[in-house]
Amino acid sequence: MELPVIEFHLDGRSGVAPYLQLVQQVRHALRLGLLREGDQLPTVKEVVAQLAINANTVLKAYRELEHEGLVAARPGVGTFATATLTGASLAAHGPLRTELRRWLAKARRAGLDDESIEALFMTTFRTAAEEDIA
User: Fold this and answer.
1) Is 5 helix (H, G, I), strand (E, B) or coil?
2) Which residues form the HTH gntR-type domain (predicted)?
3) Within a 13 Å sphere around the CA of 21, how many CA atoms are in the beta-carbon half?
4) Does the pLDDT at position 107 exceed 80?
5) In the chain, which ranges are E strands?
6) Which residues contact 33 (CB under 8 A, 6 or more apart)?
7) With helix as H, strand as E and coil as C, how does the chain read?
8) Domain ranges for the chain
9) What is the pLDDT of residue 126?
10) pLDDT tens for each residue of 28-50
11) I need a surface site. Which of 10, 22, 70, 122 has the fewest CB within 10 A?
């Protein structure tokens, strides 16, 4: 049996429902190529033990992902990725990640905490997206 390639984390302060956080993390992993077609997601039991959440929360997330065609449940075996969401070439991720890490270090040296960094990034991201549309 192969080990799951994704480890979930929950942020109780995010305001996002726990099941949606799980869904988003799987989508991100698929988009970044960290999770590939055929990779196994952690079992419901493993996620419940790791995060101390209700099994129905995990099941809801997995059902949502299955409805989107991103995973498939194999009874008695587990849940497996059935699609990828990689957009741009994965080769582009490395240099961009390096540049983003430099920017994050610079932001921290400037005294920004995680919430401030996230707020700055998201508002800049949304503004740029709106400008691209216009």
Assistant:
1) coil
2) 16-84
3) 16
4) yes
5) 71-74, 78-81
6) 84, 86, 90, 93
7) CCCCCCCCCCCCCCCCCHHHHHHHHHHHHHHCCCCCCCCECCCHHHHHHHHCCCHHHHHHHHHHHHHCCCEEEECCCEEEECCCCCCCCHHHHHHHHHHHHHHHHHHHHCCCCHHHHHHHHHHHHHHHHHHHHC
8) 18-81, 90-133
9) 81
10) 999 888 899 999 999 999 999 99
11) 122
Report which residue type is found at 47: V
Find out whether 45 and 4 touch, Cβ atoms under 8 Å: no
Torsion of the alpha carbons at 100, 10, 86 and 43, rounded to the nearest 10: 140
* Token code pair at residue 35: 């999770």
Output the CATH code of domain 18-81: 1.10.10.10
Transcribe 71-94 into DSSP letters: EEEETTTEEEE------S-GGGHH
Q: CB 112: neighbour CB atoms within 10 A?
A: 15
